[in-house]
Amino acid sequence: MIEFIEIIFTAGFWAATIRIACPLILATIGEVLCERAGVLNLGIEGIMSIGAMVGWMTVFLGADLYTGILAALIIGSIFGLLHAIFTVYLGASQHVTGIGITMLASSLGFFCFKLILPASTTPPKIKPFQPIDIPFLSELPFLGPAFFQHTPFTYLAILAVVFAFWLMNSTPLGLSIKMAGENPMALEAQGIDVFLVRTIAVVLGSALMAVGGAYLTLSAFDAFYFGMINGRGWIAIALVVFASWKPERALLGALLFAGLDAYQVRAQQLAGAVIPYQFFLMLPFLLSIVAMVIAAKRTRYPKALLIPFRRGERH
Amino acid sequence: MLKFRLEERAKSPYWLIILSPFIAILVAIILAGMLIILAGANPFESYYQLIIGAFGSKNSFAETLARATPIILTGLAASIAFRAKFWNIGAEGQLYFGALATTFFGTGLVVLPSVLMIPFLFVIGALAGGLLLLPLVLLKLYYKVDEVVTTLLLNFVVVLLVSYLLEGPWKDPMSLGWPQGKSVIDEGVLPQVLSKTRLHLGFIISIGLAFSVWFILSKTVIGYRIKSVGLNASAASHAGIPIFKTVLIVAILSGGMAGMAGVTETAGLKGYLTLDLSPGFGYAGIAVAMLANLNPIGVIFSGVFLASIYVGADAMSRAMNVPTYLADVIVALTVLCILLSLVFVHYKILFFKAKKDD
Predict the structure, then answer these.
(1) Residue B339 contacts residue A93 (beta carbons within 8 Å)
(2) Does A245 reside within a domain?
C-alpha cells in the first residue's frame, strides 16, 4: 500500500505531471480566451491534431524545432480565423461550426501526412526538444529533476501562459475580450468593434491550441500518430467549465488533472496485473465528467457565450 | 471601409432552400478537387473513379447502401437531438453500446425464432443507446452540465469498455488472436436482401425508421413540442410545454437511433462485434443531419450520398493514388459549406460604407 503513496514523493512523478500538463494547459488557456470572448470553440480537438502534424512535419522536412512551433502557431491561427468568420461574422451555429472545424482540421492533417509519407507503416521519428538543465536550480535535490530539467518547449509554454494571463488581466484588449463575452452591446457602445475583438480572441486561442498539439510531437514524443490527441481537446473544454472560465483556475485544473494522470500511469504499473489497463485509460474521461458535475453548481459562464452578435440588433 | 450587416429574411425563397444543399455539396467537391490536384491526380478522372466505385456495379451499389445503413441511423439520431438544440455528439458511443447489447443478448443468451429475435435485438439496442444517454441528459436537466462535452467524453469511455471486453471476458475463443466477440446466433442475423452482396435487412429497417421519425416529428404532439423547445425553450416553457419531459424523450429517441446503428453493424454487416465496428459513423451522422437540414426523409438521401463518398473514395484511392482521407475532407467541407448556405438562406447580406470616424 505504501508504494501508492510513495509515488508522489518521486521527482519523476512531478516531472511527468509537468510534461502531461503542458499541452493541456496551452489548449485550456486557448479555449478560455475564445469562450471569454463569447465563442465556444469545439474545433479544439482538430486544431490540436493539425498543430501536432504540421509542427512535426515542418521539422521532419528539415526545418528546426522552433520553426516547427511557428508553423503550428500559423496553422492554428488560420483555422481560428475560419472559425471566427463562421461564428463571429456570419453568426453560424458555434456547435456545428466547431465540429466541422474539428473534422476538417484533423482529416486535412491526415490527408497531407499520407500525401507526403504514403507508405509509412511505422511512423518516422524526429529528434525532438531535449531537456536542458537550468543552471544551479537543476542541481537542487528533488526540485531540480522535478521542475528544472525540462525541454525549452516546456519553458516556452509557461511563457505563453504568462503572456495570456497578462493579456487577459492587464491590457485593454483583455478587458475588451471579457466584455465581448459578457455584454457585447456595451462594448459596441464604446465604439469598439465586437467582431474584431472576438476574432482576435479566437485566433489567439486557436494558435495556443495548435501549439499545445505541437508540444506532443516536438517535445513529449518524437513522432506523429493518427488519433494521438485522443480526446485531450474535449478534456480541455471540460477543464474550462471546471475552472469557471478563470485562467488561473484553468491552470490549476490542468495541473491537477495532469497530476492525476501521471499518478494513474504509475499506479497502473503497480496494479497492472489486477485491473485491466482500459480502466486506467478511462479515468481521464470519467474524471472530466465528474469535474464538470462538481463545477456545475457554482458555474457562472460568460453571459454572451454562444450568442452571435449582430449589429443593430438587441438581445 | 466596407462593412456589412446580416438582415434576417422575412421569408426565404423556396428555390434557395431546395438548391442550397446542392450548391454546398458542389462547393465542397470543387474545394476537395484542389486537394486531388495537389496529390498530382486529375480531379475529373478521380471523381469519375469515385462514382464508379460507389455505383458502378451491383456489388458496389449494394456496398454503398450497406454503408449508408448505420449512417442513416446516426443521422436520424443527430436530427432528432439537434431539432431540440440538444447537442448529442455521442452517437459513436451509443452505437457501440447498442453493439454491446446485441452481443450480450444475441450470442446465445436469448434464443427466439427469427421473426421475434430480430425485432428483439433492435429494441435491446435502442434501449442500450438511450440508456447510455440517460444519465447525461439527467445531469443536464438537474445540474445544467453541458451535454456536448459529456457525450463526447463518454464516446472514449465506451470504446475503451469495448476494447476491454473484446480482449478479456467477451473474446471469442474461436477467433485466432484477433479481438472479436462471439457470433450472433443465426436467428438474429439480418438476412441478405440482395443475393451475393453484403446488403442486409438493416437498410430497409433504417428507411422504415426514417419514415417513423418523420411521422413523429411532423405529425404528433411530441414532434411539435420538440420543435418548439429547439426554437425557443423559454417561450415553449411559458406556453406550457413540459421541457423536462420533452428533452428526456428527445434523448431516448436520439440515443435509441444510434444504438440501433450498433445492431445493424453487429447483427447485419459483420455478424459479430469488433473494435473497428464504426470508423466514425457517429460523427458522420452529424454531417448527414446537417446536409438534410434535420429532415428525417432527407437523411436517407444524404446518408446514401455520404456513404457513396466513403465507399467510392476507397476505389478512387486504389486507382488514382489519392489518400482515402479525401472522403473525410469532403464530408467536413460539406458540413461547413452547409452552414454557410444556411446563413445565405436565412439572411440577406447588406454592405454599407462605414463612416469616416468608424
Answers:
(1) yes
(2) no
CATH label of the domain that carries residue A58:
1.10.3470.10
**CA B122 – CA A146 distance, rounded (Å):** 54
ipTM metric? 0.92
Mean pLDDT of chain A: 90
pLDDT digits (tens, 9 = 90+) for B200-241: 999 999 999 999 999 999 999 999 999 898 888 888 888 888
The count of structural domains within chain A is 1
**How many angstroms separate the CA of residue B149 from the nearest CA in chain A?**
6
The answer for A 123-182 residues in CB contact with B (under 8 A) is none
CA distance B260 to B13: 37
Do the chains contact at B149 and A288, CB–CB below 8 Å?
yes
Which of the 8 DSSP states describes residue B274? B
User: What CA–CA distance (Å, rounded) separates B146 from B156?
Assistant: 17
Expressed in angstroms, the distance from the first to the final Cα of chain B is 9
Average pLDDT score over chain B: 91
Asked if A18 and A156 touch (Cβ cutoff 8 Å), the reply is no
Q: Which range marks the domain in which residue A211 is found?
A: 13-116+146-229
Please, is B114 exposed, middle or buried when counting C-beta atoms within 10 Å of its C-beta (0-12, 13-18, 19+)? middle
Assess contact for A220 and A22: CB atoms under 8 A.
Answer: yes
Show residues of chain B in contact with A227, CB under 8 Å.
none
How many angstroms separate the CA atoms of A285 and B248, rounded?
24
CB B288 within 8 A of CB B264: no
What the block records as the C-alpha cell of B233 is: 425553450
> Is residue A232 a contact partner of residue A20, using CB atoms and an 8 Å limit?
no
Interface probe with B: pick from A48, A83, A101, A103, most Cβ of B within 10 Å: A103
Alpha helices in A183-276 (DSSP H): 184-189, 194-215, 232-242, 247-271
- Boundaries of every domain in chain B: 73-299
- Dump pLDDT digits (tens) for B66-84: 999 999 999 999 999 999 9
CB contact under 8 A, A114 and B339: no
Cell representation of residue A282: 478511462
Q: Using alpha carbons only, how large is chain A's radius of gyration in Å?
A: 20
Query: Which amino acid appears at position A140 of this protein?
Result: L
